[in-house]
Specification:
Blueprint lengths: L3 E9 L3 H8 L1 E4 L8 E3 L2 E5 L3 H11 L4 H21 L6 E10 L4 E11 L4 H25 L3
Antiparallel strand pairs: 1-5, 2-4, 3-4, 5-6
Amino acid sequence: MPLLISEISRRPDPQGEQLANVTLGTLESSPDTDWCVQVGGQYFIPAWNPEAEAQAQAAFTDIPLSEALDQARERVRHSALRRVAYGVSWHYQRLSARVFDVEGTPLSTKSLGGVASDLSLERQQQLEAQLLAQAHEDAQDWAILGLN
């Protein structure tokens, strides 16, 4: 088996702001829906329809609609606080795993975007290990075949 060298890098995800808007919601200067939450002088508009989510939850579980709506409001508040903190206390990052042969020739690069910077250390290590395993698998094929 050829000797391979690997590295992991973390960089801010260039599409992080867009990811935050799509996964959490947007911050606007004026209210747009009944589900807006005012946070820090801006209005948070969730990226999903909390009312439809609550109705579906009530329809498919034994939870009364009023309780499902309360839970939806709590999720909106939590998402609003998380969205406001984006770029301040956390951000999306892109993990990249690169594998080289002993001469420094790149054999494989695997990348994963949209990784929250405040994930638990254990979860970050799991993602890194999976990414490195994929990159090593590809690199070993190239190194064995000598097709780099």
